[in-house]
Amino acid sequence: MPKFKFSLATASTAIILTIAVISSGLLMAVLADDIELPAGPHAASACPPIRSTAVPNDIVPTVVQPSKIVIQPWKGRHHVYAEFLLPSQHYFANDRFRLNLGNLGDFCGGVSSSDNPNSQPVAIARLRTRTTLWLIAQGQLNALNQPKNWQLEIVPREKLTAAHSRS
User: Fold this and answer.
1) Which partner from 55, 76, 83, 160 sits 20 to 30 angstroms from 26, CA to CA?
2) Model-level pTM?
3) What does the H/E/C string look like for the chain?
4) For the segment 25-45, what is each residue's pLDDT rounded down to a tens digit?
5) How far apart are CA 155 and CA 62, in angstroms?
6) Handedness of CA 60, 61, 62, 65 (dihedral sign)
7) What is the 3-state secondary structure (H, E, C) of 80-117?
8) Over the chain, what is the mean pLDDT?
9) How far is Cα 149 from Cα 64, in angstroms, rounded to an integer?
10) CA–CA separation, 66 and 20 (whole Å)
């Protein structure tokens, strides 16, 4: 009985045929309205309309721009972010940041803090990789690299503690 010989050409042909079959099936499903495509990056990276409840309405936050921006979505998740250096006695007012891209609108993402007791506090604002790739495809790479487009609201800690002690 002859042995089946598996070669690189056979493997690549099988992969191409698999992709073609899956792609044609998805195309047929879309044309037949059997599946619904995602609404786009605004659905996943939308900005919440309501301000954080941790900050009372009588306190006006200060908007800061990042000290460093990294746009490398081809490296995978967590390679699209901005670093905000925070004054030592400040707190970020919202767990979201805002990326304002003018005619494309606002995009938001999560913020986490890096508390190293030996250095200045840093807030890391991350934008979703797929949103970034969509924005780059729209020709917005230069806009993504502009610090003025990245905005994080911060408030002094003493204002928060004073406001909470009054209530």
Assistant:
1) 76
2) 0.66
3) CCCCCCCHHHHHHHHHHHHHHHHHHHHHHHHCCCCCCCCCHHHHCCCCCCCCCCCCCCCCCEEECCCEEEECHHHCCCCEEEEEECCCCEEECCCEEEEECHHHCEEEEEEEEECCCCCCCEEEEECCHHHHHHHHHCCCHHHHCCHHHEEEEEEEHHHHHHHHHHC
4) 544 444 445 454 445 666 667
5) 6
6) negative
7) EEEEEECCCCEEECCCEEEEECHHHCEEEEEEEEECCC
8) 74
9) 10
10) 44
Alpha-carbon distances of 58 from 53, 127, 128, 163, rounded to whole Å: 12, 29, 32, 9
**Tokens describing residue 117:** 């007791």
* Choice between 6 and 123, residue whose per-residue pLDDT is larger: 123
Provide the token pair at 113. Answer: 């803090």
pLDDT digits (tens, 9 = 90+) for 60-116: 788 889 999 999 988 877 789 999 988 877 676 677 888 988 888 888 888 888 766
What confidence tier does 53 reach under pLDDT thresholds 50, 70, 90? low
**In 10 A of CB 154, how many CB atoms?**
19
